[in-house]
Each structure stands twice: as structure tokens, then as C-alpha cells.
Amino acid sequence: MVASIGKAVEKAHKELENASITFHPSVELVLELIEEDHEKWGYYFADHDSRVIFWFEAHKSSDLIGNVRGVKCSDHIRYALESQYWLHVELYPNKRSLPKDVVVRLREIVMYTQADNITSDTSLAPFSSEEVTSMLSLMDPLMDSAGIKNEYAYEHSVWIVARFMGEFCNVKFVNFCGQPGARLNADQSLYEDPDIRSNNILLRAMNFILFGSPNAYNKVVQKIWVDSTIVQPRWKNFINRLNSEWNGYTIFSTVMLAVDISFLTVSDVQTQKAAILVSYMSTLCAMGSLVVSLVLAGQVNDSRRDSAKSVATFMQRMSSSVLGLESLALMLSLPYALLIWGMIFFAAALSIVIFSTSGVVTISIISPIWVAILILATWPVLASNNVHISNLLPWITQQIRSHPIRSWTATRFRVEPDV
């Protein structure tokens, strides 16, 4: 094995000379045995002066570019190479000193990131404000470790700086830092402006049936998954919000199930077949909301919760499905929509019992109250879909003007000769 490594090193140095690349003392060669049977070696060079990795031949790597499209300029590619350089330092932090200028640069970046988080809702920072606050607390200890020529004592500080610098360099690369048309907001797509409202008739019908909740979730998902890249801080906040909502839906669904079962035991209800049928539908919807909430909560609490790579893989699979990301929005809206349908069916069953078993006086008192509650309950749904009374008034006025009511005199004049 030692002889094989020596041959690989000699070959790499020879190829470097043939490519007319000067080998500086600051350059490190990294070898990796890819195929042991055929002694096939992978390699790269890490330049500590330029803080990039390079190869002695033309190299095209999809892993280096990832999902970023339109990469052409060398100063843009440099951020990807620098990100990989910091990954190299992160993997091999031992026997290195920590340059003071690097720590100062990192401190400036972290302070800027915190200021951006505070002043902007669409910050491009890869960390939340709480995480950046924790990072700021590490800057003073890192400054104490910087600039000391000791290759053994501060490898942990080197690792910390390398991890943070790699993340920030990758963010600059993904957002086309310094390039024409760079991404300035986390919501901004560099390639297309996604149409949040679907043109699919089936999806539009489902959005109406599910009270517009798929559209609302789709807007949030589009802000999390931008240009096939996950916005990690927003994803974490979104998952925390979903967990809170699902916990609430679980409680409401349980209460709804208890109410439905108690309602079915009432003697007056047992004689009303229509009320029993509608109550069964309410029970099934409440049970569906409860089951879906528990299933979604269980799936979210796995590795997809915090791992950016797992989240990106999951979102990529959802994007490649038949319905695209809208299928995720539909799935997330089910607990809420099923719970609302359960309440609607229960209200319908209660109405059937009231109007079938009550007298005229009771119905005359209940009816206006029932209508008022119905109007107030549908008002938020209509408002969320941009349907307002103020928008209907011009249409009503236009219809009245286009179909004027004939006067009584004109009608009598037209009718009297036939008498």
C-alpha cells in the first residue's frame, strides 16, 4: 500500500509539472483509493494561500455545482471551490495554525448576518437569529486562538472556523454573489417566477373543497423551496408551526369525535335517519383529521426535521411527482380541511334534528341566529379567497342598471288595450 501511495504521489507531481502548474509549499495533495482491486486513485490539491482546491486537468463536477444552474464566471465558481477548500480543512484540522485575518473576516460576516436577520424578513442567511447569536459568542474565544503558531493546540478552533466559512461560502455561491442578477431576497427565484395558483382543474377544485388551505400552504412551500434549494431557517420555523397546528388539530378532532358519538346516543336523533347519516360523515371526517395529523407529525419528527440534505431530497422527490409541490400542500392541508368538514356535517346533523323536531316558535327564533352564524362563519373563507361584498356591489349595481324595472304606468299602458 505504501508503495502504491508513493507511485500515486509521483504521478500527481509529474502531471502537475506537465500542466505547467507551480507547486507551492502551501499546496497539499489529497489522495483517496477509489477502486482497491485496480488501484485507482482519486485526488485534488488544496492551496492554502488562495484557499481553493484544484486539479491538474479539466474537471467537471456535478457535486461541486449541485442544483445551481447558469454558472459560467470564474469568480463565481471560486466560491464553490473555496467552500470545498474549507471542507478539506474541516476534515483535516490538525497541525494547522489559525490565521487572524480569517477569524476577523468570519467575525465580520457573522455580525453582518445577524444585522440582516434583524432588519429583513427575507434574509439570505443560512442560520436563524438564535443560531447566529450563539455563533457570535464564539468569536472572542476564536480571536484568542488566532495568529498563534502552534500546530497542535488549536485544531478545534480551526475546525469551527472551517465549518462556518464553508457554510457562508456555499451561500454566496448559491445566491450568485457579485454576479449580475444575484439573488437579493430569500424569496427571489433566479430562473423563473413560480405561479402559485395552479392551472390544473383538479387542483383548483381540491383547493375549493379544502377551503383554500392548499393554496395557503403552497405559498409557504414556494418560499421554502426556491430554485431547488432549501431555505433552512424557514423550513425549521415552518415545521415548528406545523407541529403546533397538528397538536391543536389532534385535540379538536378528539373533542369532535366525542361530540359526534354523544350526539348519536340522543333519543331524538335515533329516529332521524338523515341526521344519523350526516353525523356518521362528521365522525369519519374527525377521525380522518386525527389520523392524518398523527401520521404527519410522526413523519416530520424523523431525520427530515433538521437535516438539510434529507429535506432537500424529500422536496426534490415531491417536486418530481405528478402534481409537483402542490401535492405536498394538499397533504398538509388535510388535517385542517377534514376537521372543518367534520364540523360542517355535525352542524348539518344538528340542523336536521332542530328543524324536524321543533315547533314553529323555536324555528322562528333559531333560523335568523343560524343564518347570522352561517354568514359570519363563511366570511373569513370568502375573504381569504379575495371575495368581498365591496367587490360584489359594483356587479350588482351593473346588473340592476342593465335590467331596469319597468314602471307601473308603462306596464298599464301596454296591458290596457288588450282588456
Describe the model.
The chain has 419 residues and is mainly α. The protein has 16 helices and 5 strands. A 3-stranded antiparallel sheet has the order 1-2-3. A two-stranded antiparallel ribbon has the order 4-5. It is elongated.
Which short descriptors sum up this protein?
two-stranded antiparallel ribbon; 419 residues; mainly alpha; three-stranded antiparallel β-sheet; elongated
Query: What fraction of residues sit in β-strands?
Result: 5-15%
| Distance between the first and last residues' Cα | 119 Å
Shape: elongated
Quickly give the structural class: mainly alpha
Instruction: Calculate Rg over CA atoms.
Output: 33 Å
Query: What oligomeric assembly is this protein in?
Result: single chain
- Helical fraction equals 55-70%
Sketch the topology as an H/E string, one letter per element: HEEEHHHHHHHEEHHHHHHHH
